[in-house]
Amino acid sequence: MPGFPNTPDFTELNTPVRQELDLRNLPVEGTIPPEISGVFFRAVPDPAHEPMLEDDTGLSADGMIARFLINSGNVDYAIKYVETARYLAEQKAGKALFGRYRNPFTDDPSVEGVDRTVSNTTPVWHAGRLFMTKEDGRAYEINPKTLETIGSWDFHGALKSQTMTAHVRIDPETGEMFFFGYEAGGLCTDDLAYCIADKNGELVYEQWFKLPYCGMMHDFAITKKYAIFPLFPTTADLERMKAGGPHWAHDQDLECWIGIMPRYGDVTSLRAFKGPKGVSAFHILNAFDEDDDRVCLDLHTAETNMFPFMREAGGVTKQNWEIPGSTQRWTFDLSKDDDAFEIIDIGPPGDMPRISDALHGRAYDHGWYLSMNPEGGPPLIGGPVGTAFNALLRLEPETGRLDMMSLPFESAINEPVHIPADDPDHEGWLLAVVDRKTGDNEYKSELWVIDGGNISAGPVAKVIMPCRMRPQVHGWWVPMATYKDAAAV
Q1: pLDDT for position 374
Q2: What distance in Å separates the CA atoms of residue 261 and residue 271, rounded to the nearest whole number?
Q3: What is the pLDDT of residues 24-37, one digit of tens each?
Q4: Which residues fall in a coiled-coil region (predicted)?
């Protein structure tokens, strides 16, 4: 598409599509299990306008909310732009008005003070409402039936934080939604707001505390007893931004930091732990209490930041395939007074993890995540970091057992969602979009249905997509009965 930069953020799988669609009765190969009945929401970044800057990142792309509706083996698909304040301002102007990623000092003067978030990272369902989120601002509420944008969401005026994470945690027993916002007090502040919304969606708890530095906090975790806040040394600097520079620059010589506090406690009870220098992690597999005093955090780590533009801003020039990483368990002994903790490897490197929603914050025996199969050929260009995954792993962290579903040559897989099975002895089903290269900048996409306990067997069904698709970031599964009871209709 002329006008878009010839970079990994805007070419190959990341080529802008910019189409709103409503498709019915998609063709299905195989049989979709009848217990799969509900909606798979996906967050798809797709820039509506050519960017102002040649080195723009796909992370700035406008958010689109996509929906697979599955019922009695029938599949419908729809996708629509999230009409954020930013999107509407640029639509009115007919061009891009916002400059460098998360740097308002590079914007066109006409949009000074306009909410910059693009709501492109995670669809979140809670208390009958659907939201699209991105951590640089508040969520936008979406009508789940029409995909129309309702507006920015601040919990009926109760939320004070200017930001809300794209990685909320919903307790499977209480229905509460736990979340946080970093840079809660504004651009480059070291404020973090920790919040809880009750099962009815009302904000009942918001406490603020100061972080050791303004850094990346993409994900967090809860257990039955604790809230865990990992901070990684990709840092923001206001003066650098005022000079037109990047929001984020990775500091390889700075330690990461982990804060742990009782999940219903006061922030003054937070314990701080120092971790390795330069380490980076974006997503957490799970966390749980091992006993009264020990907390386990399972996450995907890398030696440095996996986003090239973030690490290069800090002087780190390695390529993605040169960066060591692994899936690790970090265990914290709260009975001790020091800030050290135990680190062990539990699996190969990867990202985009998924477990059963019923096991969030609980001890668990298996989970799934995406990785690279070196025998699957070179990775396709696509996805948020520019290189797409070509394998799905099933990991048993306690035993080390590992199963793999390797994709066909020149294929890529997006983050899956999990659907529980009616049979309690069955591990449930995974849904994931798979993209396959068919020619020069030509791709075909399919929605795969995978047996979670037998991933190496490949898909039991495929939904064939008649349109080109752009990679998602994250997704969310909503059962049909829950979807029908949506609050916003």
Answers
A1: 84
A2: 6
A3: 999 999 999 999 99
A4: none
Other C-beta atoms closer than 10 Å to the C-beta of 35 total: 15
Separation CA 65–CA 67 (nearest Å): 7
Q: Considering all CA atoms of the chain, what is the largest pairwise distance in Å, rounded to the nearest integer?
A: 60
Domain span holding position 427: 12-484
- Asked whether the beta carbons of 408 and 436 are under 8 A apart, the reply is yes
In the Cβ-directed half-sphere of 39, how many Cα atoms lie within 13 Å? 24
N residues, the chain: 489
φ/ψ of 263, rounded to 5, equals -70, -20
Give 1's pLDDT tier (boundaries 50, 70, 90): very low
Residue 472: give its domain's CATH number. 2.130.10
> What type of residue sits at position 101?
Y
Mean pLDDT, residues 103-128 taken together: 98
Q: How far apart are CA 166 and CA 474, in angstroms?
A: 9
pLDDT-wise least confident of 107-111, 295-299, 384-388: 384-388
pTM for the model stands at 0.97
The answer to whether residue 167 sits within a structural domain is yes
Res. 292 pLDDT band, cuts 50 70 90? confident
Q: Which alpha helices (DSSP H) does 6-138 contain, by range?
A: 85-93
DSSP label of 415: P
Q: Is residue 79 part of a domain?
A: yes
Does 20 fall in a domain?
yes
How many domains does the chain contain in total? Answer: 1
Question: What end-to-end distance do the CA atoms of the chain give, in Å?
Answer: 36
Residue 263 lies in a domain: yes
Residue 489 binned pLDDT confidence (cut-offs 50, 70, 90): low
